């Protein structure tokens, strides 16, 4: 979905974070049972079946189609069965890595870091955003607003992309805490006049455009790059 951004401008960048990441089981996942799953082939892959997990998004029908296409493509390329699963939560992917029932998983940067911290998986590939392995968490506001920093948004209504968004909630909240603007004794609602949560980046920006809030926390690839969410038409 594209919406116009001709009246939108970034206030400032909160932090830089890694893009989506493909992880593979650190201890071999199903490789621990090579005798049961198969023997090593010339390309070094010993599994008769490769299990891949994708983090669920907000479009189940699209993900189901992608799941089937990915299974068919990889099965042909690897000459073995490939099973793609879409767990209901990232926690299920983490647990699957730990118990050895998952070989590869595609996760957000936050979930990937959790797996690395637990030594449950290692990095295989990193998703590039506009050619970069990282992107920025930013605040967007209307161009005609004179906001230059997060301090300018004090006592103003703002929107976050969602409760679970890394760049649209976790990073900006961490940044506010690091600046001493929020904390154990000062909630987000103590600093901002109102905090609203969207269902994604676009919904958060729409709240800025319709005047419901003064700024929205989103990722910088929402408004720039080849795959930007917002149109400048």
From TrEMBL:
Signal peptide: none annotated. It holds the Pfam family Phosphonate-bd. PANTHER family: PHOSPHONATES-BINDING PERIPLASMIC PROTEIN. This is Solute-binding protein family 3/N-terminal domain-containing protein.
